[in-house]
Amino acid sequence: MTPTPLRRDAARNRERIVAVARDLVDRRTALQLNDVARRAGLGVGTVYRHFATPGALLETVAAPCLEDLAAHGERALADPDPRRALEDFLTRTVEAQVTDASLAPVAAASEDALPRTTELKAALWSAGRVLLDRAREAGSVRTDLAFGDLVPLTCAIAHAVDVHGCAPDDRIDTAHRYLATLLGGLRADTTPSAG
Amino acid sequence: MTPTPLRRDAARNRERIVAVARDLVDRRTALQLNDVARRAGLGVGTVYRHFATPGALLETVAAPCLEDLAAHGERALADPDPRRALEDFLTRTVEAQVTDASLAPVAAASEDALPRTTELKAALWSAGRVLLDRAREAGSVRTDLAFGDLVPLTCAIAHAVDVHGCAPDDRIDTAHRYLATLLGGLRADTTPSAG
Amino acid sequence: MTPTPLRRDAARNRERIVAVARDLVDRRTALQLNDVARRAGLGVGTVYRHFATPGALLETVAAPCLEDLAAHGERALADPDPRRALEDFLTRTVEAQVTDASLAPVAAASEDALPRTTELKAALWSAGRVLLDRAREAGSVRTDLAFGDLVPLTCAIAHAVDVHGCAPDDRIDTAHRYLATLLGGLRADTTPSAG
Amino acid sequence: MTPTPLRRDAARNRERIVAVARDLVDRRTALQLNDVARRAGLGVGTVYRHFATPGALLETVAAPCLEDLAAHGERALADPDPRRALEDFLTRTVEAQVTDASLAPVAAASEDALPRTTELKAALWSAGRVLLDRAREAGSVRTDLAFGDLVPLTCAIAHAVDVHGCAPDDRIDTAHRYLATLLGGLRADTTPSAG
DNA sequence: CATGAATGAGCCTTCATTCAT
DNA sequence: AATGAATGAAGGCTCATTCAT
Predict the structure, then answer these.
(1) Which of residues 40-99 of B touch strand E (CB under 7 A)?
(2) Is A163 within 8 Å of B151 when comparing Cβ atoms?
(3) Residue A13 in contact with residue A21, Cβ under 8 Å?
(4) Do C72 and C122 fall into the same domain?
(5) Between residues 16 and 55 of chain C, which touch chain D (CB distance below 8 Å)?
């Protein structure tokens, strides 16, 4: 299962690459493997050896954050209040997407470059599915929303923040405003209650 | 006022270009002026003469739809029910974005290539602003949403549909589901009413 | 001999074109017939009808100045002092080239676009030839310089000023300094007088 | 100090590129990187990797000659006769420009593409400055010529030869004739001594 | 005569990916 | 494993000139 452990120097190179990529992502710069190599002081070939495609590198950058989210999803399952659990979960997810530019594209992609990414996304959203089911059973959530809508809706909020184009420091606040609207809309009683 | 009526053949070429672009947009293909020229059976220079940038061409493709939306916005102002007026307006706007791929990027862009586009967007959203104000005064809409949030939110829904990745025929239905949630969330009484 | 006199409007167009070109030349901008047409508010075709090539237009712009120079050449023939006559002639020619950007390329070209230009250049330099011959006979000029060197040498001074790259206002002064050197060098007694 | 010795094959390619460029320069053909690539049998990217701009390639072509000139400048400093030293220096410089078409544009340019070029030009002309100062102190050179005039004047001679348009084999002789005039003009005693 | 739309060769430049060293 | 040179398709844009209207 575990791949051959990396040689010491190879591991160091890998870390350097990811660190450079992290930095580029934070500066909203597209990942170009040539560019990453240059900035990392490595040959392109080395970067390609570690990451076959820009997507693979991006997913690697996103992974720790995905892990955190998945872990939070796990914990949210223990919350006795189904609505709050779901809302917390979605809030965290949106906050992460708005904060970390590596997440949105990875979340929105239907195909992953790395199996590991697929695993993480599955873990994350399987928690989401349970939380949604519970909330729905508790009558806290409108019934016309399916599990498959969670990803689109969270990505949508993040996208709204991008379109809004506010200063970096205001992104989280803006996201919260939009989330408030979304969460309001999710509540069961708001379903098409007539005119 | 009128810039100079185009010569017959020039007009035909221009239409051909726009038609080709329309087709590419519908097939979710990026507009490349060289490519458009080839498909239209015209020289590159001809395309550049009519549309200095891909953005200008895209906005030209989007224009008719923007006009329709703006016209609808005008009519919506006559609706005596402020909430319904706003909801209709947003619904139409989202439907359009989901149906016509030229709209989302034009709507989301902060800078326009053509003055005409700026005018149309201004007309459209000035109606939106009035409708939002009225709805808010009528207490039909949560108070933490500002005029500047309308564009992001409608783009967000359209983006959610894209992320959802459903079949072309289901896009409108999906959009309506998301809209229902959004509109539910917009209603005043759902504002952070505690847990 | 005289070509059909231009129709009134055609003459006006022609003048407009030349005026625009004159302006562009003064701003050290390359003459592009499309560009000239646009600035003159005329169709490209019109410009092409009047001036088949950028060279023809440039020569037309240069013509009045060439005429002045040729006229001065004529007058210089009347000067009883052969050295002064030649030096004045060269000075005027260089001053003109340094002042009027249309001259240098026309002067340096071995082929002309317009017969009229060939005539003017011939008139100008036939005066130069006589002035040089007289000065040489008077022993005022080194003997190793031939008629064919006058154009290169004047162009050279103008080029030196360009390379020097001084402010527009200093060009004439710089040209005079270089001319002083050149004229000094032309004087007979300076010929290789040993080491 | 040394940037990293080039790999064998890379060095060979680089040489091939420079050789092709050298050839084009000798045939008075403008350097176009695509064209150079094709003639060298290499990909465009390869040429761009080695030379980011046509200017960089041209300067590389010119470099050996500039080095020779700079070396000669050094040696000229040892000549006890100030006038002869300066005249030799200028003669060599002009001969080089007239012989090697890569020099004139590099010499005349106020901005260099490569730092190396700036160094070489500085070395060359700092020798020139000393030689000029010495000659002036010795009273061998007119006083109205400054250091900044050396480049323009040498370029001017080369330009005169171009304008003269003689056969390739006569260029050097023509240059010598013009140089004789220039050097005559530089001599102190020829300064505006009245008529 | 005037117009100006159309042409399209031609140049520039970038970048994802491969592969010899 | 690492390197980084080489590749070349791909796309962008300009401009001199022609010719239908």
Answers:
(1) 41-46, 48-50
(2) yes
(3) no
(4) yes
(5) none
B5 touches strand F (CB under 7 A): no
Judge whether residue A29 contacts strand E, using its CB and a 7 Å cut-off. no
Among candidate residues C34, C117, C125, C49, the one with its CA nearest the CA of residue C86: C125
**Domain total for chain D?**
2
Token match 């646009």: residue?
C38
Q: Considering only the beta carbons, identify the residue of A151, A160, A183 that sits closest to B155.
A: A160
Chain B environment of A125 (Cβ under 8 Å) = none
Question: Token pair 């000239």 is at which residue?
Answer: C36
Residue in D153, D159, D181 nearest the CB of C186: D181
Residue from B121, B11, B113, B116 nearest B53 by CA? B113
**Which of chain D's residues 12-41 bind strand F, using a 7 Å CB cutoff?**
12-14, 41
Q: For strand F, is any atom closer than 7 Å to the CB of C53?
A: yes
Residue A28 belongs to domain with CATH number: 1.10.10.60
Determine the Cα–Cα distance for residues D137 and D188; give it in Å rounded to an integer. 11
Number of residues assigned to chain A: 195
Other Cβ atoms less than 10 A from the Cβ of D137: the count is 10
Sign of CA dihedral B54, B58, B60, B61: positive
- CB-based contact D94:D175 (threshold 8 Å): yes
Nucleic strand E contacts from chain B, 100-159, CB < 7 Å:
none
**Residue D31 parent element (H or E):** none
Query: Do C76 and C32 have their domain in common?
Result: no
Say if D and B touch: at least 3 Cβ pairs within 8 Å: no
Phi, psi for B143 (deg, rounded to 5): -85, -10
Say if residue D115 is in the same domain as residue D96. yes
Residue-wise DSSP of A120-180: HHHHHHHHHHHHHHHHHHTT-S-TT--GGGHHHHHHHHHHHHHHHT--GGGHHHHHHHHHH
Q: CA triplet B169, B175, B181: central angle to 5 degrees?
A: 150
- Nearest beta carbon to residue B148 from set A152, A157, A164: A164
Given an 8 Å threshold on Cβ–Cβ distance, is D159 in contact with C161? no
Question: What's the CATH number where C174 sits?
Answer: 1.10.357.10
Handedness of CA A140, A146, A148, A151 (dihedral sign): negative
Structural domain of B179? 62-189
A182 in a structural domain: yes
Query: Along the 195 residues of chain D, how does pLDDT read in single tens digits?
Result: 445 666 778 899 999 999 999 999 999 999 999 999 999 999 999 999 999 999 999 999 999 999 999 999 999 999 999 999 999 999 999 999 999 999 999 999 999 999 999 999 999 999 999 999 999 999 999 998 999 999 999 999 999 999 999 999 999 999 999 999 999 998 866 544 443
Q: Which of C152, C155, C166, C160 is nearest to C178 (CA)?
A: C160
Residues 45-104 of C with CB under 7 A from strand E: 45-46, 48-50
Helix axes C82-99, C54-76, angle to 10 degrees: 160
CB contact under 8 A, C153 and D81: no
Q: Give me the amino acid identity at B99.
A: T
The predicted model scores a pTM of 0.89
Q: How many CB atoms lie within 10 A of CB B2?
A: 4
Instruction: Give yes or no: residues D112 and D175 share one domain.
Output: yes
Answer yes or no: do C152 and D161 touch at CB < 8 A.
Answer: yes
Give chain B positions within 8 Å (CB) of A153: 160, 178, 181
Question: What single-letter DSSP state applies at residue D190?
Answer: G
For chain C, the distance separating the N- and C-terminal CA atoms, rounded to the nearest angstrom, is: 58
